[in-house]
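From the shared-data thread, chain only:
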Amino acid sequence: MVVAFHSFIAYLGSQPASPHPFDSAPFGWTANPIIDGQRWFGFDLFCASQYVYLMHLMFFLSGLFVWPSLLRKGAKTFLHGRVLRLGVPFILGVYLLMPVTYYPVYRVTAVDPSWSAFLSHWFALPFSPAGPMWFLWFLLVLNVAAAGLYWLAPRAGERLGGLSALAGTHPGRYFIVLVSVSALVYIPLAAVFEPWQWVEFGPFSMQPSFSLQYVIYFFAGLGMGAYGLDRGLFDSEGMLVRRWAGWLVGALAAFVLWIIPTALIVKGQGEAVAALKIVADLGFVLSSATSCFALAALFLRFAAAPRPLLDSLSQHAYGIYFVHYVFVIWLQYILLNAPLPAIAKAAFVFTVALVSSWAVTAAVCRSSIGARLIRGHRPLRATSSVVANGRFSELGISKVDSAP
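Structure, as tokens:
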């Protein structure tokens, strides 16, 4: 989903007519790096549908294995592993990977396209562009907070797990609580910050209107993990899975509730109707939660059985996230003048970027250092028998160690 989202951005129908200048605020190229002349409105709908929930879901999933890992390792060992697997990649990504990634963005509008000229412009920027790496530092901060909670109140996980018990038998009630809390923190921030607005402090960037929602979803996932995945929201025979169709319809309805007033506001037609902004904000909160529940229900219902290809994708997902942006941006840049329609370009970028990122990650994981940073333990070839034999308890430990 993340690779597809970034692959399609260059071909949105709502993109500006010309590329953003590299040296001038508000530095729009950080959000829209490559702007292609070929467009398709379908990509606008797809990217908008992902925008409302994708990072919420990633923070939610990232919290699932935190408390079991804290219980097993203790706060000190847990934090050491988080710094190694989140902090080190963040530094490497920002200061080594991102300059290579954004070089073609500079070349689009550059008078002098040389690497040396690019570096002089790069270091003159008032911030250090982090791209997708922002997720790593934000997640590291939340992991530190979780470790602090464990150190100060070791039974806090049980209390959060008790609150999460409601989700297994009554996901609708849990959903109402989640939406209510999210609305309380989002609507005041949305009155000050636009949903697409970013704030940068050196290499640290974030979306202020969404940040507290990410915190809520992370700790919601932490509570789910503390309660137990086999008997909570993710119970394969639970109410969420049995009503997957209803959640899917609800996700589509909530998305419509958000996209229509948002489109009117962006076009300037909602300026005279203050209530329209409230409707859009409520629609966003509803769409975020409903989409997360619907996607979880769909995967539990239709993709729970082990499959070699999906197992490999799962094991290498973190590495794919880490390196995919380099391939996406360079491929979009290479195809700028290609006489192809937007759908063909986007399909090519997505396919090649995903396969290339997957292959690079698999190669890196064959080394001890790469396997430790990407997967959290020894190289993949040494643990393949665990997956093949279906030893769930050992595989569960692997997931705890390797979850971002």
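The radius of gyration is 21 Å.
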